[in-house]
Design goal:
GO molecular function, one term: ribose-5-phosphate isomerase activity
Family: Belongs to the LacAB/RpiB family.
Keywords: Isomerase
Protein name: Ribose 5-phosphate isomerase B
Largest sheet: 5 strands, parallel
Number of helices: 6
Number of strands: 5
CATH architecture: 3-Layer(aba) Sandwich
Oligomer: single chain
Order of helices and strands: EHEHEHEHEHH
Bound molecules: D-ribose
Helix content: 40-55%
Strand order of the largest sheet: 2-1-3-5-4
EC number: 5.3.1.6
CATH class: Alpha Beta
Structural class: alpha/beta
Distance between the termini: 30 Å
Strand content: 15-25%
Number of domains: 1
Shape: globular
Radius of gyration: 14 Å
Amino acid sequence: MKVAIASDHGGMNIREEIKKLMDELGIQYEDFGCECETSVDYPDYALPVAEKVARGEFDKGILICGTGIGMSISANKVKGIRCALVHDVYSAKLTRQHNDSNVLAMGERVIGPGLAREIAQTWLTSEFEAGRHANRIGKIADYEEKNL
Ligand code: RB5
């Protein structure tokens, strides 16, 4: 598995924590910033990561900002992206099993590094269950094809 990770200035600490986790799990990743001392704009980080996942260059993406909201709104504008904003372990598991989310967003001003780590580990290691859920995701994909 290859993961693209990025954050804005509001998510840099959790980004580092998740990189440590991926090192421990032996998961390959690339860090797309930010390298910021000052404030940056979250779409400048969310959209390139989402595009890399949508193009198949990476299997999954992880995006962190202050709330995770800006990152998730931005990533979900990219066709083929199912970005889940997650702040609990149960949702992390279910959004992989049911939604086959391919991007995870979290907010560093909402949760601490310990919980973010557990969420990321659960999300990275849970599998899509397909079946009836595949049909539902197919409806989203059909909408994207017909309405863009
Ligand atoms: C930056 O101040 C903040 O707005 C951003 O990190 C994020 O929370 C946006 O959704």
